[in-house]
């Protein structure tokens, strides 16, 4: 998903007119803007045996069978679901767990399994050295629903798990059963080769990520903190960005941060009555609400590019390693490392693309509105919900303050009562009241940004490069560069901030190898699944051999 939001828009800049800027000189430090780690191949002898077995036709058939079988189980989650144990809709996850037990017998024989809130799965592959911090691999069992009205539009039925010789089709084939199955396939294969880790490996599989993860990862997180401790994990890898070709170079883009989130409800309370006698102001509650919406949309939070944002590091990597990047933009990025003027000019250039501008800044969108019940009755309550995705260098409180300040001035001007997030801001004792609040109580701060100068990022980067280069002497593989990125949406990692300082959102798959996420015809290339398994095998061996992780 991150590539649709982050990397692909960079291509659009090729169509943006970028004037030449003669005052930009060369920057000697530009060659070090995006340092790369060398390919990190496991040293263990068993690693070669495991990796060789993954390249076999038999393993390909196993990957097809296990993912296809997983897709056939309809693990949809919906916005309105009751608690586990009360709503029977959750019971399908019991069926899915039974399937996993049959598909991965060695995993279920040799790993410890704890079930959190019935359907959350936490596996522990216990290492021999308890002084080494464990690593955590995460995925989710659930999928978004399939709109019944679109079923006839699917090339193959959405829960068929159909394999056409190249692709597996169906809801969840990419998001996120591909990762879950790949993780388990990697460990099942390592167990088959009698691998015994030194470093403990923990797997966490939530079951409601698509509806914010409160009953899945939201319950797993405190379990992990209780059993392993705060900041107990050396690193965490969950779903996220993958690989894409950009301006003539191949990039892998693990996300090191996520934007924040708040839904703000704006509610207008006004006296009712017959519509033949409108209020003296001529503005009904709907009219007042409309004025406020126009006010907010006319005064959005201005986006600002800063060097602390992950997307700034993304652009530095593209500038250094992509041969086809427009020269003027390249020079602006190079100079921006130590020039405020260049940084501002770089901002102007990249903000020419609205998608990039939206990723960088705090966005707002009025997505829900309601008011009135009858055409001849004045509305007594009118409300709207504004969704905001919060910039990585901003806060929930900053967004609340922005809305409060704008509407306070409106309330004072119109002499009406105004309550903001539980605080009385302007009390006029009037019959007209404006109140804004966190609509569902789900506001989320931007995620802590994972450091890229630490060993976990270097290990992940080296593993990615090694996985793509395959053999140590493979010179035919295309150059691969690793660049940090940011997620504009949120993953289950939102619940795991307390248990690791090194959280990576990364799916080892090319953008062209999976498509249809959250829409019609979701499907994934089977060879990409094999590549994901190879990545997890390399990661597990490399983490096991790491000294300073």
Describe this entry's structure for a reader.
This protein has 549 residues and is an alpha/beta fold. It has 2 domains: 45-240 and 505-545, Aminopeptidase (3-Layer(aba) Sandwich); 258-438, 2-Layer Sandwich (Alpha-Beta Plaits), CATH 3.30.70.360. Helix content is 34%, strand content 20%. It has 16 helices and 19 strands. Strands 1, 2, 3, 5, 6, 7, 15 and 17 form an 8-stranded mixed beta sheet that branches. It has a 6-stranded mixed beta sheet with strand order 10-11-9-14-12-13, covered by helices on one side. Helix 4 packs across helix 16 (526-545). The two termini are 28 Å apart. The model is unreliable at 1-5 and 14-26 (pLDDT under 50). Zn(2+) 1 binds at residues 175, 210, 518.
List its salient traits.
549 residues, alpha/beta, Aminopeptidase, Alpha-Beta Plaits, 2 domains, eight-stranded mixed sheet, six-stranded mixed sheet, 16 helices, 20% strand, globular, disordered N terminus
């Amino acid at each position: 998903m991150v590539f649709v939001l982050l990397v692909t828009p960079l291509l659009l800049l090729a169509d943006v007119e970028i004037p030449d800027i003669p005052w930009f000189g060369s920057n000697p430090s530009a060659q070090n803007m995006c340092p790369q780690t060398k390919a990190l191949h496991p040293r263990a002898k068993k690693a070669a045996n495991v990796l060789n077995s993954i390249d076999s036709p038999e393993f390909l058939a196993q990957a097809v069978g296990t993912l296809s079988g997983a897709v056939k189980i309809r693990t949809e989650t919906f916005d309105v679901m009751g608690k586990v144990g009360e709503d029977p809709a959750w019971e399908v996850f019991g069926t899915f767990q039974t399937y996993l037990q049959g598909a991965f017998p060695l995993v279920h024989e040799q790993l410890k399994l704890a079930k959190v809130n019935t359907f959350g799965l936490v596996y522990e592959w216990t290492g021999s050295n308890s002084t080494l911090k464990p690593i955590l691999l995460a995925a989710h069992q659930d999928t978004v629903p399939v709109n019944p009205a679109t079923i006839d539009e699917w090339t193959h039925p959405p829960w068929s798990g159909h394999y056409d010789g190249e692709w597996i089709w169906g809801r969840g084939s990419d998001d996120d059963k591909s990762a879950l199955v790949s993780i388990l396939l990697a460990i099942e294969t390592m167990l088959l080769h009698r691998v015994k880790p030194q470093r403990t490996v923990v797997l966490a599989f939530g079951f409601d990520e698509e509806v914010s993860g409160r009953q899945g990862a939201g319950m797993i997180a405190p379990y992990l903190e209780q059993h392993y401790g705060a900041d107990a994990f050396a690193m965490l890898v969950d779903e996220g960005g993958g690989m894409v070709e950009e301006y003539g170079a191949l990039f892998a883009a693990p996300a090191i941060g996520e934007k924040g989130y708040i839904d703000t409800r704006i509610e207008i309370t006004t006296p009712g009555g017959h519509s033949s006698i409108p209020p003296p102001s001529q503005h009904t509650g709907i009219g007042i609400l409309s004025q406020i919406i126009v006010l907010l949309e006319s005064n959005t939070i201005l986006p600002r590019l800063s060097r602390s944002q992950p997307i700034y590091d993304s652009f530095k990597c593209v500038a250094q390693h992509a041969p086809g990047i427009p020269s003027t933009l390249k020079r602006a990025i190079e100079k921006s490392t130590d020039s405020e003027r260049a940084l501002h000019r770089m901002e102007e250039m990249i903000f020419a693309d609205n998608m990039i501008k939206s990723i960088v800044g705090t966005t707002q969108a009025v997505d829900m509105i309601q008011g009135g019940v009858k055409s001849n009755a004045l509305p007594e309550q009118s409300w709207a919900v504004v969704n905001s995705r919060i910039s990585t260098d901003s806060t929930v409180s900053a967004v609340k303050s922005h809305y409060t300040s704008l509407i306070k001035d409106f309330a004072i001007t119109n002499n009406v009562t105004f309550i903001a997030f539980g605080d009385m801001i302007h009390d006029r004792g009037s019959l007209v009241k404006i109140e804004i609040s966190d609509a569902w109580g789900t506001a989320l701060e931007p995620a802590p940004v994972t450091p890229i100068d630490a060993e976990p990022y270097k290990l992940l980067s080296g593993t990615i490069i090694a996985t793509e280069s395959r053999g140590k002497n493979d010179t035919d593989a295309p150059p691969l560069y690793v660049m940090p990125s940011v997620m504009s949406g949120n993953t289950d990692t939102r619940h795991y901030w307390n248990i690791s300082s090194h959280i990576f959102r990364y799916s080892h798959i090319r953008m062209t190898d999976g498509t249809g996420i959250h829409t019609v015809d979701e499907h994934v290339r089977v060879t990409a699944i094999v590549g994901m398994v190879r990545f997890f095998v390399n990661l597990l061996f490399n983490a096991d051999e790491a000294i300073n992780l």
